[in-house]
Amino acid sequence: MKDKIIAKASELFLKLGFKSVTMDDIAGEMCISKKTIYKYFCNKEVLIEESTEVVHKQVHEVIDTIVAKNHNAIHENFEIREMFCEMFKNSIDSSPIYQLKKHYPEIYQKIMTEEIDLCSQWFRENIEKGIREKLYRADLNIDVYVRFYYTLIFNINETTVSDKESQQLELEALEYHTRAMSTPLGILELEKQLKRINN
After folding, report:
1. Residue 136 falls inside a structural domain
2. Which end of the chain has the smaller Cβ count within 10 Å, N or C?
């Protein structure tokens, strides 16, 4: 039952927002009593914390699945971005990360610490792969580019209220990041990916 509550709560939080969803809403959606929820979670904050952990885990499982497909580094980044858009396509217009930061800053801080570590590792592996594939320049300072990119992405998510605007800015950031690192061969692959998603 606990896992079912977390799954339903995660779905509602992402769709309607962390602030607006109440324990009554979750109980109503699941046709259970609020008392049943409180049996597993002493308050809404604990439920939000556990729900964000589950979503965080799901996101990284999907990233691992995409990486395992062994696309080239640029295609891989675009596919991961598409996966994020798909995962959060039913969310309200307000970005979930923006909401979490505004209304539950301590939970936000905790999840971001883990997220930055994992994303930094994934960005680094992607850059190293792109260099091996001659899509990215061999002279890159990898640490700097990793830092540039996660600063860009996290800043967009933290400060952009609208989810739609946030997704558009993320695409611009991905193009900017890729162009800055690419060899002429990488630019060709970037143009191919941009054409693919715009068709």
Report:
1. yes
2. C
| 152 part of a folded domain | yes
Average predicted confidence (pLDDT) for the chain? 88
Write the pLDDT tens digit of every residue in 107-133: 888 887 877 888 888 999 999 999 999
DSSP class of 20 = T
- Residue 164 CA, distance from chain mean position: 14
Is the residue at 11 inside a domain?
no
Phi, psi for 94 (deg, rounded to 5): -90, 130
Number of Cβ within a 10 Å radius of residue 47: 22
59-77: per-residue pLDDT in tens?
A: 888 889 999 999 999 999 9
Report the CATH number that the domain containing residue 115 is assigned in CATH. 1.10.357.10
Q: What is the mean pLDDT of residues 169-174?
A: 92
Distance in angstroms (rounded) separating the CA atoms of residues 171 and 84: 11
For the chain, the domain total comes to 1
Note whether 39 and 33 are within 8 A (CB): no
The DSSP output letter for 19 is: T
32: in domain: no
Phi and psi at residue 41, to the nearest 5°: -135, 120
